[in-house]
């Protein structure tokens, strides 16, 4: 399986043997790994470690995996894989409703866990490998270039970051406020109408005269639709 360098994984379980098994196995695969024996420790650790993937045991003393999942999803950009000793539908549904991205029942295959980790990373962090393709659009984050059907677009640094953010989140409606926060930063003090100016420029450079690629949803924001 192809490895992607720099993936940070937070493993959380109150059983020391399982935690050690996960830590040693994941480090051996080339991941950066931190461990926590309970949910509260995991929440505090995530603030500084910034994991790409969190593997959460459901049944833990104090803060259980469900609550930890809920809080992690509120504060971190992280993919969550939940582990449980019970393969019960109710537990699986509850975890998914709280934001979990995947679910595995104990005992589990380490190879399957690896496959699921890589699947989550490819889905949620496509640019960790430096390059990613979304339909006719390709992004090379190392060269800071975006191409449309093989043609490299002439973009300013802000246009690059805006288009990259929108393409990665294609199919999702993005409000002006959210775009400002993610692209310009939460401390940006300017007018949110600057988003309209940059969207107009991107449409020109993409040849999107009919607004079929970058769609405007009145009162809601913008959405990129890819074929």
Name the helicity range: 40-55%
What spatial order of strands do you see in the largest sheet? 2-1-3-4-5
Task: Just give the CATH class of the largest domain.
Answer: Alpha Beta
The proportion of strand residues reads 15-25%
- Envelope shape: elongated
Q: Element order, helices and strands?
A: EHEHEHEHEHEEEEHHHEE
The total beta strand count reads 11
- Structural class of the secondary elements? alpha/beta
Topology:
Blueprint: E1 8-12, H1 16-28, E2 32-36, H2 39-49, E3 53-57, H3 65-75, E4 79-84, H4 89-97, E5 102-105, H5 110-124, E6 131-134, E7 137-140, E8 145-148, E9 151-152, H6 157-168, H7 176-184, H8 194-206, E10 214-217, E11 221-224
Parallel strand pairs: 1-2, 1-3, 3-4, 4-5
Antiparallel strand pairs: 6-7, 7-8, 8-9, 10-11
Q: What does this protein look like?
A:
With about 230 residues, the chain is of the alpha/beta class. The chain folds into two domains: about 120 residues, Response regulator (Rossmann fold); about 100 residues, Winged helix-like DNA-binding domain superfamily/Winged helix DNA-binding domain (Arc Repressor Mutant, subunit A, Orthogonal Bundle). The chain has eight helices and eleven strands. The strands form three sheets. The protein has a five-stranded parallel sheet with strand order 2-1-3-4-5, with helices on both faces. A four-stranded antiparallel sheet has the order 6-7-8-9, with helices on one face. Strands 10-11 form a two-stranded antiparallel sheet. Helix 2 packs parallel to helix 3 and helix 6 crosses helix 7.
